[in-house]
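Most newcomers find our protein records easier to grasp once they have seen one. A learned vocabulary of local backbone shapes supplies the integers on the structure line. An example says more than a description, so a record of this kind follows:
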Amino acid sequence: MPSTRPTTVCRRHPARSAATLSLAGLLSALLLTAQPGHADSVPDPLNAPAGPASFADVVERVTPAVVNVTVAQEARQALSIPGGPLPDEGSPLYEFFKRFGGLGEMPMPGPRQREGEGSGFIIDAEGHIVTNNHVVDGATRIEITLNDGEQYEAVVIGRDAKTDLALLKIDTSDPLPYVAFGDSSGARVGDWILAVGNPFGLGGSVNAGIISARGRDINSGPYDDYIQIDAPINRGNSGGPLFDARGVVIGVNTAIFSPSGGNIGIGFAIPSETAAKIVADLKTKGRVDRGWLGVQIQPVTDEIAASLGLAETRGVLVADVLPGTPAKAAGVSSGDIILQAAGERMQEYRDLTKLIAGIDAGTPIELVVLRSGETLTIPVTIGQMPSEELTRNVPPAESAGDAPRLGLYLAPLTPELRAERGIENDATGVLVAQVAPGSPAHIAGIKAGSLISMVGQQAVTQPSQVVDAVKQAAAANRPAILLRVEQEGEQRFVAVPIG
């Protein structure tokens, strides 16, 4: 029989089998011993699976508070003629038809309505609803459909484009089901989440997934700090709530990353710790008041840190200080590196943006800055951000690689050059007369006609000062030199590699 062969073999060579087993055990022990830290590196298995058996109880409790948002927006209808549409209004061909006939004989369709859809969620029994700003931006009518099919017209209480949040309100005599914001700061990568919304206008849908990452910056605004999730969210999910496994709102679904426009497993939600503050301001004031310094800032890159001889890459580089601002009044200077603000360590430029925005106008704080190798403490009183955007985050300069020279041809700012180039009398610095093609300066994006006003953290007014600074940086074995460049009306620092 088939089972007898192994038995016969074992009985025929009992000593060999025992020796073989003993040798195998010894080799296993040696292999385990030979891997340093092996026992410590293998985590103990969990006593039970990490995920819940079902989300049904949570879904049943929270979905009544999730709504569909339908908006009507005006869209301009194109004119048409036999053979194709007329060109846009204001174009030369449009003017031709207008002057020489044709338009008056054609129907002139006016604006027409188009519809868009999104999601939202009720946050109190009175009917306040949170959604995304981009869902309702430009809407002429907003209609809310509750989970039970009831429909109401909504009004906008307030909108905040910078965080892409909006607060709506519907009127009803009946108390409404609602959900509350929780604390998203404790949410961890790997936690289960539920995204509820209205994808593709299909109606209430629930998708499950996990938190993939925290603190994502997708370059959508100055306050990016998104929760990245892999729960399938698509068009129409915007403005819907992100729940944790307990049914607490920890985010507002707002964006997807997708080449095709559909879900590929990368979605982004505004953390509730951000959304709750914004919504509270919109509810009480209809707007969001933010603190303001009045500086243009950029990150401290590895190249910039190396060019300044910094021991680590951190802090916020002040590219420009706007006139008449709190920072200007306090004595903050271009080239300062802000290491600490209001007692908080600045690791990257977003840290400063978010911190200052959350401080009330009139609040005194202290900035700890690095200037010319010295650490200074500067007291400053926070102002209120103007309604028009006056500050701008300057993107980081890219490394241009190693090169033996900068490739800059410089000239002093003489009265003749000022008149020829239209340079204002109060502008200071050194004129970039020419940039050698393919040089480090050219690759770094510096153009002829630009002004170099600082090298490192020192102001310059003569080409010789720039040359001397480059020589000193090369002697100190620094890989790059930091230049403050005024180009096309924008001030920014650029790290240019040196040989």
Summary: The mean pLDDT is 77. The longest helix spans residues 14-34. The chain has three domains: 59-76+111-288, 291-384, 408-497. The CA atoms of residues 51 and 192 lie 7 Å apart.
